[in-house]
Write a structure and sequence with these properties.
72 residues, 28% helix, 38% strand
Length: 72
């Protein structure tokens, strides 16, 4: 799990979730607010997704957040 700030100072957490057929989702939750966003990651497996998330800088996390869609 990673914590970061968006461009407006909002605090977010990003976590990984295993989905069906070997897919991995990046799940975003805003600290102190309702709602969940998600983005599918293009990785070969969960371990690769963990490495990608661990190595991502805040700019990359904000980019992924901008690409995420509301859950449900």
């Amino acid at each position: 799990m990673r914590s970061f700030e968006d461009d407006r100072g909002g605090r977010w957490q990003a976590a990984l979730m295993e989905a069906s057929f070997g897919n991995v989702l990046l799940i975003f939750t805003r600290i102190g607010a309702d709602g969940v966003l998600h983005k599918a990651l293009d990785t070969a497996n969960f371990h690769e997704a963990e490495m990608l998330l661990a190595g991502a800088g805040e700019a990359r996390l904000r980019e992924w957040l901008g690409e995420a869609a509301p859950w449900g």
